[in-house]
Amino acid sequence: MAKPVSIEVWNPNGKYRVVSTKSMPGTRWIYLLIEQDCRVEICTEKKTILSVEDIIALIGHKCDGVIGQLTEDWGETLFAALSRAGGTAFSNMAVGYNNVDVNAANKYGVAVGNTPGVLTETTAELAASLSLTAARRIVEADEFMRAGLYDGWLPHLFVGNLLKGQTVGVIGAGRIGSAYARMMVEGFKMNLIYYDLYQATRLEKFVTAYGEFLKARGEQPVYWKRASTMDEVLREADVISLHPILDKTTYHLINKERLATMKKEAILVNCSRGPVVDEVALVEHLKQNPMFRVGLDVFEDEPFMKPGLAEMKNAVIVPHIASASKWTREGMAKLAALNVLGKIKGYPIWGDPNRVEPFLNENAPPPAACPSIVNAKALGLPVSKL
Ligand SMILES: NC(=O)c1ccc[n+]([C@@H]2O[C@H](COP(=O)([O-])OP(=O)(O)OC[C@H]3O[C@@H](n4cnc5c(N)ncnc54)[C@H](O)[C@@H]3O)[C@@H](O)[C@H]2O)c1
After folding, report:
1. Is residue 384 situated within a structural domain?
2. What string of H, E and C letters represents the secondary structure of 175-221?
3. Is residue 385, in this structure, part of any structural domain at all?
4. Atom of ligand 1 nearest to the CA of 198
5. Can 235 be counted among the known catalytic residues?
6. What's the gap in Å between 273 CA and the centre of ligand 1?
7. Whole-prediction pTM value?
8. Residues 333 and 309 placed together within one structural domain of the fold
9. What confidence tens digit (pLDDT) does each residue in 234-264 have?
10. Does 47 lie in the same domain as 102?
11. 139 in ligand 1 pocket by Cβ < 6 Å?
12. Ligand 1 in contact with 334 (CB < 6 A)?
């Protein structure tokens, strides 16, 4: 018998039972559900990461849908439990869903939602922040000030890297990678080299137009290049930011051999998923190359760091906060709730998961559609004509 898990209940007499494994920002997502006759149960357990047993206890005997988190292991066991409880809807409160076994969800006929479109700029802004923080050694300098060590201006004090005119490398130029590339090109006039399985046409056009704009003003233009291999990016770029999805093809994409091909003073940023980088190899590389710097939002064994990383002065490390702006987190909560609600109500799937603004409007009811269901095709769910 699983231990009971503490919850907070909204609209106790609602017809559909929706469980959220965490309290999420804002209350709009709760009202969107209770206005449509849902009883909403929010887990209030103090521990950060719920076990599979905790979630089974939350699902209970009757549950129509669950909103879950990327820290949870949504596989065969949980989808079987949700299906037994009569549930057909699950949504991650995240755009990535490497914590979800989509095949298992398909087997039990459970729709899997994610929350694209609202994380793009916020995540790209954190990647840009980490790039600057690493380039200008801001954390080291801040610690130095607070320790009372500053006794006057010195020519060598915390000398870092100038970004202007250098090359930014992007691996995975999808939504977030492209937004980050634009920020670094537009904001710091860096040249761009990128690697992706697909051509980032809009990004290329933007950099071309921006380069022409600069040239017309008598300034040094910016250039872009689509690399034919990832290694080309690693060899040529001064700042490299990782933005691919995590799957078998991107696991340990950055390893010992590839780190060795990067410039000695390069900056590596990871706001994708921890296992994209072999963190043990990274710690060793940071030790051997004090001018190589890294900015990390994600870690291979989250919430833990590999031994030695915390001691490295050339690493800037933050606790997976890339999507942590109020607008984004509230938007993620709304989209996750509407994915679950839409499936419960039998709504079709929104045609373009990248254009989710109509679901975010606080003053108008959202469209009668599921904003983003990743296994819609596999489940044969209809697409909205709205
Ligand atoms: N740190 C955070 O809080 C945070 C926030 C949001 C997203 N993310 C991560 O960022 C990822 C990207 O998000 P997105 O919205 O930009 O997704 P996206 O699907 O728009 O972009 C991913 C890109 O990676 C490319 N790609 C896939 N395999 C590749 C490979 N082997 N080599 C190079 N490129 C490859 C794809 O072609 C695609 O263009 C998510 O899957 C998620 O894991 C992290």
Report:
1. no
2. HHHHHHHHHHHHHHCCEEEEECCCCCHHHHHHHHHHHHHHHHCCCCC
3. no
4. 37
5. no
6. 9
7. 0.94
8. no
9. 999 999 999 999 999 999 999 999 999 999 9
10. yes
11. no
12. no
The catalytic residue among 273, 285, 293, 329 is 273
Contact 93, 24 (CB under 8 A): yes
Q: How far is the CA of 175 from the centre of ligand 1 (A)?
A: 7
Structural domain that includes position 219: 120-317
Structure tokens at 307: 């031994």
Q: Give dist(CA 244, CA 25) in Å, integer.
A: 26
pLDDT digits (tens, 9 = 90+) for 109-144: 999 999 999 999 999 999 999 999 999 999 999 999
117 Cα: distance to centroid of ligand 1 (angstroms): 12
Same domain, residue pair 253 and 181:
yes
Region of 177 on the Ramachandran plot (φ > 0 left; ψ -120 to 50 alpha; else beta): alpha
The candidate with the shortest Cα–Cα distance to 45, out of 63, 71, 26, 64, is 71
| CA-closest candidate to residue 293, choices 239, 242, 237, 253 | 239
Quickly state the pLDDT bin for 209 (edges 50, 70, 90).
very high
Over the stretch 335-369, which tens digit does the pLDDT of each residue have? 999 999 999 999 999 999 889 999 999 889 999 99
